Amino acid sequence: MAERIGIIGGGIVGIALALALSQRELGEVTVYEKEARVAVHQTGHNSGVVHAGLYYPEGSLKARLCTAGRLSMKAFCEEKGLPYREVGKLVVAVDDSELGALADIEKRSLGNGVPDLVRIEDQGKLREIEPHVAGVAALHSPRTAVVDYAAITEAMAQDVRSAGGRILLGQEVTAMRLEGGKVRVITPVSDEVYDRVIACAGLQSDIVAKMVGADPSPKILPFRGEYWALSSERNDLVNGMIYPVPDPAFPFLGVHFTRGVYDDIHVGPNAVPALAREGYGWGKISVKDTLESLRWPGAGPMAKQYWKMGVDVIAESLLKPIYYSRAKRFVPELKMSDLTVKTAAGVRAQAWGRDGALVDDFAVDQMGPVTLLRNAPSPAATSSMSIAEYLIKNYLDVKV
Questions:
Q1: Which residue in 27, 95, 230, 365 could disulfide with 372, CB within 3.0 to 4.6 Å?
Q2: CA 55 to centroid of chain Cα atoms
Q3: Does 399 score more than 60 pLDDT?
Q4: Taking 90 as the threshold, does the pLDDT of residue 90 lie above it?
């Protein structure tokens, strides 16, 4: 008899896993998604970038799975006729103080096998790629692409159904119980038993882990990323993507420019602590979520380390001139009026430990027949298909 496999979470990682299992006929697959459609949260609220692997430490899961995932994502889009545009990314050092960090990124990129990477120090060549950019040097990744992750997830979901898998929408898992080597999954409208369960629950991953008695650490700290739309009349300011040299002490990239797959250009995101797990704006506040974060043992150490940066990003969120000044460093011709409206923000599920450290790499726990994906931030969408392969091979004992 085929194994019954439950998957919690209908984002791109959960659906990619369901697709891999269904197509290989590795079990009877059921996906639980609490929303009325797939890809509602992190999958449907991001820049749409297919990363090439520039930033991740060599040998890390992020580095390995991003490289494999990019190739799988491109192949899937080609197979399904979905848009996949290699618009290219330019990581720009705006002054000499950033050259050391740029060199570190170059070393990582080469170690990760980023294809066709080029270091540019000639202003003429820099302007050939991005005519309006300012900087003293840059790394150009021409194979960095953009896609529509929500459309990709929907296409994957159709394939899951065609292969015999179930996707149960509007069914939030409220409890799980380990019973004699199996797992009982309970929602307000169903109660079923599975041989295995894999949780790809994103912003709810620590809550789901708690259901089966897993370690409370790492806990999820939600960070909201806010975008400003660039006026369509000023779309010529950006050809592809213009990224900053990130601060190595902080796991977020900082404000950048991205031409999306449908030619809209957005500026951002920043990274500001959200006041709710699904806090897509300052008006969405969960007292419960906020108090849980403040009571977490890591809250004090993290506040001590990042308080100044926290003040900066909150100011950046609330005051448009500050946000604009961050962006203008890279495109001096940018006017504040070119940033027209704040578009739909995203919330990143950032895992953090008891010591206040933000977890950087992908992280997985195992509780008997339950596999828990505890940390899957960017580049999880890029890596979704390779994350699925990794979970199957390393946690479900199946050769891939």
A1: 365
A2: 14
A3: no
A4: yes
